[in-house]
Amino acid sequence: MAQPQQQPWLRCSLQLALILCLCCPATRAAPQDARVHPTPQEECVGSGPDVCGVCAGDGSSCELVSGTFSRSALPVGYHKVLDIPSGAQRITIQETIKSRNYLALRTATGQSVINGNWAINRPGHFQAAGTQFTYRRPNEIRSRAGESISAQGPLTQDLHLYVIYQQPNPSINYEYILPKSHRLATESSHNSTHSHILPLVETHAVDERDNLVPSNSVTPKPLPLYTWVAMTTTPCSSTCGSGKRQIYFSCVERATQTTVPGDFCSHSVRPAPQQETCSSQHCPAFWDVGEWSECSRTCGLGLQHRQVLCRQSQGRHGNITSIVTVETQQCGHTEMPETSVPCQLQICSEWHIRTDWTECSVPCGVGQRRREVVCVSSLGDVDDDDQCNLAMKPPQLQNCDMGPCARSWYFSSWSHRCSADCGVGWRSRSVVCVDGAVSALPLDGCEGERPAQLSACDLGSCQHRVEWYTGPWGQCSSECGNGTQSRGVLCVVQSAGQLEVTSGSNCSHLPRPPDTQPCRLSTCGAQWYLTDWSSCSRSCAGGYRVREVRCLNDVMAPSDGCDPGLAPESREDCNTQPCQPDRDGWCRDLHFNCELVVQAQLCVYDYYRSTCCASCSRANHRNARPAGR
Question: Which of 56-60, 123-127, 288-292 has the lowest mean pLDDT?
Fold first, then answer.
């Protein structure tokens, strides 16, 4: 491929730049065998770099690209905001107001950097394209600011910025610095601008100057004698860790690099004060102690606990001081505070015996006697029993033996049920001979006639007697897991030795047996579970809807035991019918869920008819179409 020829004016500019570089004192003094590349501040001793990093520069070697992305309504999903080109530096992306939308970043090859594949990352640091990105998402309750992504750069490859749209009216500000030399190289090789911004984005370039001269010029424009140079800085905002400081520009004579009054330089190109990151020694780690917990016991000796962490300040970023938790060893220069201390809220209550034992409950044989035992506080007040140690409570009851009693017949109460469901039957009771030692003797050991053990009972004729009849249990409704099984329950009447089915109301006075019961044959193992489909992302011209599909085991916990080949689809196409052209340019849907408005037949109202104009117009068109066409 033929190489493009350089224009004469460009060759002259390069020659002039080379001469100026060779004449620069810093260039002549540089050692030939240097192994460490000095920083821009070290290279520009006495003059300082401009915002573009050029010694004694005026900020014209780079451009600041900035803009705002804003749309009233978009389909739910990922939407590209802009392309950030390779070489971009000092990148700042800020959501102007807090919303339910999310920022996302990925490389030109499609590799996700932040918030890819519908997975929202936690705020933090992410490495990509040769630099570190900081992703911040402020507290959702106390902050009104939205998300932000920032990086120092420069980028080693192109990146794409997206917004995950979930709430109307997204608004995103962005800016970055791009060296003009990098832009010219990109335009020469790709014949395109440094960024490919979507038509949805309004862009505005700040401080962009055209440093090209007409092609028929053979002599480059001479450089001004005086220029603005970064000369002074403010103290670092943080005494340790990382902070910020301001860079102020002074007017200097280009040849001698001496400071002159500001009137010698053009105020129209005077750079505004710049801000740069400054760092000093690491902040010393310190012990961060939490609040003491409540005492472990309400009385007596207990313990209080608190959390003690080793923390370190990373410096101030704006009005916020960044503090992180570090290893405990970094706080070894100071003694670790106590994490547990003894405590005592009050003296525990004690058991007091108020009365002596009462008389025995029986005149002979073995009985019981009582006494009063109460829980008394240290002030003499009676407390609830749980305020004292229940395990050490003195006994309140005690057995007492009053000597043997005469032998007597003892019998229980008659049984409540008759031995027959109908007709004549028997009720029974127990009869024993007991002496004073409460031991059963042979039935002939007591004097007197033995009490009867059986008593006759008659529940009436067995004819025309109704009762519930139950059939056998059926099969379980589920082959595995929980299910139910049922059986037949009938009211029958007994007549002449035969059972006949009768109305259930005739047995209403009897408890009805259950006709269903739970059953479980075996466990089912892992199965696929899914949710309902979401609303379609578009009302026409092909949209999609999604649902969540999960593999769960018998206890409803996530599992990997399901067959992936049998997994239900989690996404499908919907509303594939073509969209009807708008009759008027203003007639369009302002919300993505206007299809639900049509289904709910709300188009008869002026508000919905204007908000969902396109969908309501298509619905009216379908309803007005003659049948059969």
Answer: 56-60
